[in-house]
């Protein structure tokens, strides 16, 4: 799905920070407040923000392929207007590498990543895992945003 202005207006940096906090906290073993602070800092980076927004758009197409963009936006808006908490994903062992790559990317944007982790992420295998991580996050948040 190409990202329309309405979709981008719906998935703002602030809303994404709230939606991602439980997932990031669980994956990094952080308390929610610390995770929120790091995500808030990381999502100021336009490339990361755009990657997550695109992952959610792709996840919505995968989770609800029969819906139109307008129907997706209506569901998103209803869910985001509620104050229900978002649940973190259940990470399977075969998916761990992708989730680690994604959290490393967030750590880089937040300025808390080591040089070795950064080097691994920017290797060809690391980039492949990062793409898988974006896809998994997109599917997870699409399910959370439409439940």
Offer a few descriptive terms.
globular, 73% helix, 147 residues, single chain, 8 helices, mainly alpha
Any chance you could write out the topology, listing elements then pairs?
Elements: H1 5-10, H2 13-28, H3 32-42, H4 46-63, H5 69-81, H6 96-110, H7 115-121, H8 124-145
Helix pairs in contact: 2-3, 3-6, 4-8, 6-8
Number of strands: 0
Computed over alpha carbons, the radius of gyration is 15 Å
What is the residue-averaged pLDDT?
Answer: 88
Helix content: over 70%
Query: In DSSP terms, counting alpha (H) and pi (I) runs of 4 or more, how many helices?
Result: 8
Please report the distance between the alpha carbons of the first and last residues: 20 Å
* Largest sheet descriptor: none
Class of secondary structure makeup? mainly alpha
Number of separate domains:
1
Give the overall form. globular
- Ranges where pLDDT stays below 50 over 5 or more residues in a row are none
Strand residues, percent = under 5%
The SSE string, one letter per element, is: HHHHHHHH
Quaternary structure annotation: single chain
Protein model, in words:
- This protein has 8 helices and no strands.
- The chain has helices at 5-10, 13-28, 32-42, 46-63, 69-81, 96-110, 115-121, 124-145.
- It has 147 residues and is mostly helical.
- The chain has one domain (5-145).
């Amino acid at each position: 799905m190409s990202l329309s202005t309405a979709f981008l207006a719906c998935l703002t940096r602030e809303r994404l920070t709230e939606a991602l906090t439980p997932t990031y906290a669980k994956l990094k073993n952080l308390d929610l407040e610390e995770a929120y602070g790091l995500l808030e800092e990381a999502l100021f980076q336009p490339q990361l923000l755009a990657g997550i927004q695109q992952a959610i758009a792709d996840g919505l197409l995968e989770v609800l392929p029969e819906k139109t963009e307008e129907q997706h936006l209506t569901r998103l808006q209803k869910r985001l207007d509620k104050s229900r908490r978002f649940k973190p994903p259940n990470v399977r062992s075969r998916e761990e590498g992708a989730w680690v790559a994604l959290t490393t990317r967030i750590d880089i944007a937040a300025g808390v990543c080591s040089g070795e982790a950064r080097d691994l992420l920017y290797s060809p295998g690391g980039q492949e895992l990062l793409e898988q991580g974006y896809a998994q996050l997109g599917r997870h948040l699409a399910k959370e945003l439409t439940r």
